[in-house]
Amino acid sequence: SDDKAWLATVVGQYVEATGDTAILEEQIPFLEGQVLRDGEDEAFFEPAISQTTASLYEHCARGLDKSLATGVHGLPLMGTGDWNDGMNRIGEGGKGESVWLAWFLHNALSRFMRYAEERHDAARSTSWLMHTTALKEAIEEQGWDGDWYRRAYFDDGTPLGSALNRECRIDSIAQAWGVISGAADPERAKRAMEAVDKYLVRNADGLIMLFEPPFVSTDHDPGYIKGYPAGLRENGGQYTHGVLWSVQAFAMLGNGEKAQELFAMINPINHARDRAAMQRYRVEPYVTTGDVYSITPHIGRGGWSWYSGSAGVMYRVGMENILGLRHVNGGLLIDPCIPSHWPGFTAKVRIGRATFDITVENPQSRNRGVARIEVDGVAVASPSKPICVKRDTVSSQKVRVVLGSREHGN
After folding, report:
1. Backbone angles phi, psi at 49, to 5 degrees
2. Distance, CA of 351 to CA of 267 (rounded, Å)
3. Taking the model in full, what pTM does it have?
4. Which of 172, 193, 240, 391 would bridge with 352, disulfide CB 3.0–4.6 Å?
5. What's the confidence (pLDDT) of residue 99?
6. 11-24 tens-digit pLDDT
7. 364-388, pLDDT tens digit by residue?
């Protein structure tokens, strides 16, 4: 499972945003529970709070250490599910491997390595560095399918998410996380996202598939995901959390047009522009749904509103990856990726007790690339660094951002 790496990822993101490294020293108790017996995949019980405590850093580090086991392809063991817990029988025998989890773990280890180095935890920093190198090599050697990255390997070594498969030939999250992790070969990452656009974006229906085609009669049992009707929820529907990573990946590649186009497809308000659209969507237009159905006669119907945590992911992708407003080290980093036809935008951001009134101008019709930043009329020396404020400072600053020529701009 990816659960062990999620903690380090979330904690790492918090520390990077706030600069609050002291939280890593907070003492937290462990939980105690029964060990699974042979033949058990899961158990339901109430855990006990242990008398043993450790720092939050140690909790995260132990979770990462537990994630380092690999299979015959050098990829992380999938167990009874990774992010897509519906794929709970791909690796139930203890040999199945996840390509997506390899990207995710690479990202988590790379993000947390600095904290091991700061604590002179040399054994871990060395181990994690060696593992990220090995993961990257394994993904490129064993995960690349020719035009996109595979999704996983079953216990018997059969690939999933391959052009050889009749069902689940291509899965979006294995492509998106190649970009998000920063570990994929740049040319392959670009080709993989082109495949997402070609095979998983259904413009006529206004949908983005998690993967395609859905599971119906595959010889290998992927898990309870196959119990969902084809085109619903994780089984080949527009599963909102997962497909939002594709939006993020396109923005990170600098494709502002595609990022905004896909964001608009997911935006619930666009599913209720008129009576016909509203009758098709059938759920609240002010709520991000867990999924949208992709199969006749229910194409475009929303599902699991009020249940999904996808709204938080959608908010972050829109704010941080498209508008480019990121909370970094207690300050504000501004690096938009927008459609070239946007003349700009305005935003008001509050960090602590400080407020930023932001105006972004796009005179050269660009996707990205910050040429100039002014704070209260004074140019900032390096527009690539965050504008920092003390959290107890009460201030209102006017920020002018001009997009233009920059090394990574389009």
Report:
1. -85, 125
2. 26
3. 0.94
4. 391
5. 98
6. 999 999 989 999 99
7. 999 999 999 999 999 988 888 888 7
